[in-house]
Amino acid sequence: MNVVRRTAAALAAAVVLGTAATPLAQAADPSPSPSVALPSGLFGTSDPTYDGVWRQSLALLAQDTMGLTPAWKATDWLARQQCDNGGFAAYRAEPAKDCDAKTVVDTNSTAAAVQALAAVGDYEAATGKAVDWLKSVQNKDGGWGYTPGGPSDANSTAVVIGALTAAGEKPDAVVKDGKSPYDALLKLAIPCDEKDGGAFAYQPDKKGTLAANADATAAAVLGALGKGLAAEAGREAGQKAGRKAEPTCADAKTPEQAAANGAAYLTKTLAKDGHLTSALPGAEDQPDYGNTADAVVALAAQGGAAQAAKPLTWLEQNSANWARQSGPAAYAQLILAAHAAGADPKDFGGTDLVAQLNATGPTPQLHVQDRAVAKAADKDDEDEGLTFGVWWYVGVFLVVGIGIGFLLSNRNKRQ
To answer: Domain 9-236+245-414 - what CATH class?
Structure first.
């Protein structure tokens, strides 16, 4: 579940060409042109073209997880990004204008927005329309691709499952041609008797072969458990006779067993260094901070906080510079990881992640305020920066902070 979880120029190009489009891992987070005015309700100062809705959703989820009430202008900015059909694009510079055929809505932005708006409350109509749209673009195998009509992938299917749960739906009851989202995930699980058994693939390759993908595995573990981006720790698993059992892989006949298998694969992968490595070409030996944070959430959700202890400790000791360079989505990912694994986000390796996140966007409310009063106070800047120009990244694979786990997920190269 990634931070700039979701895309760069490659996405726009892929959509135009009609190919499967997927987000890159948090690509470079350069500052926008000094002449550009960003919307006042948006978190972060980097170009939001490819990750505006994703990073806003993560920021709101992180604040809600910490018991904060996000600023009205922040939640309203996110809600106003929605198209009339219910879907969300990665970012719309002019939300006052109707979406048209050129507006690329996607499942990941939509599902993340549903989770955030459902968490903060008071947006039932918006989340209901978004869920209806997600159901309308479900694939016949029960899953979802990044864009409507694209082949199902583990990350997109998982984040939609989280949205369905957040909106009060039962994912196993959301079916297409008799197939549920869990059916789609199970088809992407690598059998235990094969190489990297227990892991999940992002998608099958052209020959139908499944290749293990750590980011997809972290996402799929949460999805198979029916949990979302802000998952809390599950029950402590693997305890027998006072000792922690080694995680093992077993025949995945149920989503729960598939989640346990995925967690076992992540545990083995993290055993040596405590972190995942980047999948970006030329950076395979570099730590992937975002995907490691995602793995912490997945491990804690599946087997309890103790199961995520090693990667959590590594993040506490090593993630500060990455978070500073990467911005609000990175701070949010770390907050969600700390929360899931029982750590204190306000003292995470000596860093107050909550204060750092809050500093990148509208100040959260200290207590619940009258929405009418808040709306009146923000009226003058509701439309501030809506003429934000499209500012393209110079290089698709320029990355500041290798790999952010679940928006811009490095998915193109994982296929």
So the answer is: mainly alpha
